[in-house]
Amino acid sequence: MAPGPRPAQSIPPSAGASIVGRLRGVAKPGSTVVVSSGPPGATLASNRSFGNASRTASISSVPATFPERLFSGNVRRLWLSEAASNAGDLIFGAGVVIWLMQLRYSFTDVAMLLLAFAIPAALVTLFAGSLGSIRDPRRALWLTGALRVLLAVVFIAMHFDTIIPVVILLAFGLALASNLRRALRHAAVAHTIPVRARGLLASGDQVTASIMSVAGPALATLLYILDGERIFTIAIGAAVCYLMALTSESNAEPLPDRILFQRPENKANAIHSAWESDEDSREDAAVIAAEEQATVWELAAPPNTRMAMADIDAGLQIVGAASRPQFTFIAMGILALVGGIVGLLEPFYVWIQLHQVPYILGLLYTAAGVGAALGSMIVVGARGFGRLFLIIGLLASGVSLIFFTRTTDVPHALMMIAFMSAANVFAIRGGQVTLLRHFVPIAQRAVAQSLAVTRAWLAVLGILGAFLLGTKHNLPIPTLGLTTLLVMSGISIIATGIFLTMVVLLPNRVTPLVDTGELDPLPEYDEAENSDDYPAYDESARYPAYDESARYPAYDESARYPAYDESARYPAYDESARYPAYDESARYPARGERRSTSSRHEPEPDDSEDSPRRRRR
Q1: Are 255 and 266 in contact (CB under 8 A)?
Q2: CA-based nearest residue to 196, from 69, 41, 293
Q3: Which among 534, 266, 490, 300 is positioned nearest to 396, based on CA atoms?
Q4: Which tens digits make up the pLDDT trace of 170-190?
Q5: Which residues contact 249 (CB under 8 A, 6 or more apart)?
Q6: Residues paired with 593 in a beta bridge
Q7: Which residue, among 142, 141, 247, has the nearest Cα to 188 in the 3D structure?
Q8: Full-model pTM
Q9: What ranges make up the beta strands (E) of 546-616?
């Protein structure tokens, strides 16, 4: 899939819009293209006529699904940057050890150089998990990449004026920047690579790591020899690789969630993740099932360093809950401890025991890469037989280390180194399967973090222990010879493998939280008898009743707004002053009164014989 539009990139026109202008190589000036709308992933086309010929200009829209291809978009960028970064680290690491060994032949200087490489890795593992929560790590990746390029370029000056403390500091800075970049890359994968393509990217990283484990030391040896056994070309080669990684991974753009969480077709689970289920659900089985179906990279990274340290502590507690994971963890720790010892003693074994020049050490590093690549091809896809692979790897590694001390020629030494490296891969992969296969992803993440921290610090302890036991100091520590230290390391690995075999044959002892079978029954609690020891809890003694009136008194509105007396401004309206009471009796007297008045003023008719009325009649 092509990446999304960059800030300076123009936005495609809407449906029905017209584009008037020159289309380079296709259209003439003044041509018009009418863009039609379509579903995501469809092709937008328009017919164009140029004279008597007719052509079709098509524009593909951004697809709605992410293609599962290694050479597409962000997957290509992160894959190539990882390959270039691994190449630069291997070229610089192997080349500087060979150069310093050729220059000084000092046990102390080589030990300090290896500690400068190992200590930053141990420090970064303590908080590496929290760096995965960065939403857009492009700026941080650019800074760490630029720092690596700068330090590699500055290291070129050590060819002209070699100052051992400055060499150690430059190596420390490069190792610190490389480990920070490796942790930040997890954040880049989490926010730029969809879920459906992360398995493909992991497989690609595995292949390139196997190839670079062989090609890196071989290229470092070749560059060192071609330049007359000088560090000049080593530093230039590392700087070029770091620059390629910088330009590639800093352009990986974060994707929207609708693309980021796409799953493969016809492979969607009923419950995609524990975080997508209802938080108020009371069915724990649904949550556990969701966690079992999810992969480790779908889990949210710890948001800060404190939570990352809590992950490490939780992983140690999980491992210590059963005997088999516990002793598997110890066996892998011993393997890392011996690895630090062998890493320091190997250059001097080439010089003292094999009587070879230091650049032959590059051949041993290449042989170790070949063995690791072959071992990875066999066991990388293993999902079972973890304890068997672990035991076989431990026994074979210890035996090959003892035989390595008996070799006196380069071909046999290369064979033993390759065999021992393949056995180490068997042991490491078997230990990972044994530790992680029985846990849900969130527990796998915690166990993996605790294992990484333990192995990194034990490697530092192995280098420091070999330095103290292999040189003369004013300490009450007996100095051991080179061969003695290697033989003791091989015997310790074999003893660990034998002891682990005995543990596997025995039942897996699980440490319960509370062993209820050995506890006496609890006596019945008499509340009346123990009332003095446990009085009734009175919450009012600690939390008295909250009286709001002390802080907020009753609000009296009359103090601010007195009663409004309207009579002061508007007196009572007396209508009688203007309009007196209407007395209807003056015009219309009462009925009885009207009769009396008329009888009083009008004489009644005279009906006597002498009256005028009778006379007219």
Answers
A1: no
A2: 69
A3: 490
A4: 999 999 999 999 999 988 888
A5: 77, 78, 81, 82, 141, 145, 185, 188
A6: none
A7: 141
A8: 0.69
A9: none
